[in-house]
Write a structure and sequence with these properties.
binds NADP nicotinamide-adenine-dinucleotide phosphate; 31% helix; six-stranded parallel beta sheet; seven-stranded mixed beta sheet
Length: 327
Amino acid sequence: MYAIRQSEFGAPEQLAYELVPDPAPGPRQALIEVRAAGVHLVDTVLRSGDTRGSVSPPRLPMTPGREVAGVVTGLGDEVDERWLGRRVVVHLGAGAGGGYAELAVADTAALHEIPEGAGYEAAVAMVGTGRMAMGILHHARLVPADVVLVNAAAGGIGNLLVQAAIRAGATVAGAAGGERKVERIRRSGAVAAVDYIAADWPHAVRAALGDRAVSVVFDGVGGAVGRAAFDLLGAGGRVVSFGWSAGEPLRFTSAELFERQLTAVVALGASITGIPDGLRGLEERALAELAAGRLLPAVQTFSLWDAAAAHTALEQRTATGKVVLVP
Ligand SMILES: NC(=O)c1ccc[n+]([C@@H]2O[C@H](COP(=O)([O-])OP(=O)(O)OC[C@H]3O[C@@H](n4cnc5c(N)ncnc54)[C@H](OP(=O)(O)O)[C@@H]3O)[C@@H](O)[C@H]2O)c1
């Protein structure tokens, strides 16, 4: 099969499209012919060998990728034959690899059947990015009276949060970098769409919302953008912080939470895995939202051989929606 292999840390060009031996499923495992593989911003960090963050560099050589959707074409021992030919989607595990490939192996216990009518690309978006969005929403407990500000609102998680908040009946403002992304947010139905590359963007949010204060901030950007969003929260507001794509976490003090009666949740690690029913439950919820047509992930696809371009798009902030590789 063909797969993306990486032998050295460095630039996207380290991602080489190579012929490698087919993987073989072990006991209680299935072989999947991959139709869509998920790509993450964190994959670019792992590729670069950056050791400053919370993720450790992987052992090389390796095939990146931890989410795949496809068709079961082979079975290991102790697997029910009824899996053969089924359309499945699976998260291979946080520390796993092997997704950027034509074939992947996964434990059958981790598989989900793709809902009827749903495509491989949407399914792979929901099993990782969708499950994270479900975890964030669990902590936010949105109500129709909420006024929600979503940062990186044209990104993978951001796009789903905008949709979910609108569905919850909330008033939604989305912020992102650049006019092309702002236009996408506008089209998704947010009442306000703002470009946070402009210095006066908090003013634009206030102007769009009139006398309604922001009650919930969803922030996966951190740094100055996250902080400006935090400053827009009215008294009693909630902030859910789940990442720092800008390179620095959102910073605030407990004194600020007291003075402004704010609630802050860091929706990462144990605060996501500890949600009742765990990650599997969040994956099921995300796929159920897709099946019901309540959440439809925006997806940007690249050919598997062009994985380097997918990484470049994420690093240069030109990607929108969930980035997916198609063999
Ligand atoms: N997807 C998951 O399963 C998951 C799990 C845990 C945590 N997270 C975190 O949640 C956040 C959103 O994740 P996502 O997967 O949905 O990613 P994403 O939003 O599709 O991509 C990250 C976005 O961050 C913004 N950004 C701002 N500064 C950036 C920079 N210096 N370099 C790159 N991007 C920058 C970009 O949007 P603009 O150009 O509009 O600013 C970019 O589109 C990230 O911080 C991620 O680490 C994700």
